[in-house]
């Protein structure tokens, strides 16, 4: 089949190292991809004078699919988060983060198989902050009927397609009666049209306690923006950390795949980062191409990569964050070796 052009944004910190590993693994698995390299984050600021250049946005709009390394948002005046900007400008309203136990990675928790669906464009990420009067600041939490309804609909459609059984909304509508109130009202309304999917609401503080007591009771979590951000890292901690949780940001036109973790400045350049989360995001991307464009070749490649990392993890062939001995390129090479042994 013809090569598919896909945008790759190496990003900052550990981003370029883990993106290189991802390209090698996808290539070995037979994914026929012609990479279009674009930049975002500090690396783009150095090259183009802005953190999210228009040519990056244009390339994603043109090719519809991108994979992205983490981007550092410079702290200080005048920079709004690259990731927030990207999600808003491309209207990537649904963040999807599957969190599950992996073979060979033992944690205190078993039977974790949760999909986090996070509303990606509103909430406290509106970027509207004011100094009301010296010493008093305000951040605006935005919720619109349109966005609350479309994320609820997206989550229920996802559950239906994937044959998932239950959707739980975490909220704080007892305090934020209007904004979180609207979020649960819309979710409740949408849930009535999906009789075969159980719908549940939980106040977020109690929900967090229940997650760490028994995560196996949760199936899909539907969350507004900030809660989705926090719960993603919390749930990553249940299954081995940020090195093993992939993600996708999906809109009606485009999809951008990326790991949940950030640019990890503390280990950047040491070549010890775990590339698995972004490789798994790459697997999600290949499956997305199979679903949306009928690319069976991409599905085959995705299946091979999954088999390869299951084998590697079962053999203890991992990076340091998972108590292994391999560095980033070594881990990628091990995956490539396993892939090459898998029969078509
Ligand atoms: P972080 O996720 O970069 O790091 C948290 C901890 O996890 C660090 O100790 C780090 O070494 C470790 N870690 C993260 N990914 C790892 C990997 N693949 N392998 C091994 N260890 C890993 O979060 P932090 O420090 O809060 O953020 C750093 C920068 O990343 C900030 O500028 C932030 O804005 C940005 N960020 C970007 C994201 C994105 O582009 N999607 C998401 C989250 C943060």
Task: Write up this protein.
The protein is an alpha/beta fold and 344 residues long. The chain has helices spanning 15-28, 42-48, 54-63, 82-89, 145-161, 179-191, 204-213, 225-239, 276-293, 296-314, 328-341; strands spanning 4-9, 33-37, 65-68, 94-100, 113-119, 129-133, 136-139, 166-171, 198-203, 220-223, 248-250, 255-257. The strands form two sheets. A ten-stranded mixed beta sheet has the order 2-1-3-12-11-4-5-10-8-9, with helices on both faces. Strands 6-7 form a two-stranded antiparallel sheet. It binds 1,4-dihydronicotinamide adenine dinucleotide. Residues 14, 70-73, 83, 242-243, 258, 261-267, 273-274, 277, 321 line the site of 1,4-dihydronicotinamide adenine dinucleotide.
CATH superfamily of the largest domain: Isopropylmalate Dehydrogenase
Low-confidence stretches: none
**Strand sequence of the main sheet, in spatial order?**
2-1-3-12-11-4-5-10-8-9
Q: Biggest sheet, in brief?
A: 10 strands, mixed
Give a list of the ligands: 1,4-dihydronicotinamide adenine dinucleotide
Strand content: 15-25%
- Portion in helices: 40-55%
Structural class: alpha/beta
CATH architecture name of the largest domain: 3-Layer(aba) Sandwich
State the CATH topology of the largest domain. Answer: Isopropylmalate Dehydrogenase
Question: Secondary-structure element order, as H and E?
Answer: EHEHHEHEEEEHEHEHEHEEHHH
- Cα Rg: 20 Å
Note the overall shape.
globular
Q: Count the E strands.
A: 12
Number of domain units: 2
- Average pLDDT works out at 96
Calculate the terminal CA-CA distance, rounded to whole Å. Answer: 16 Å
Number of helical segments with 4 or more residues: 11
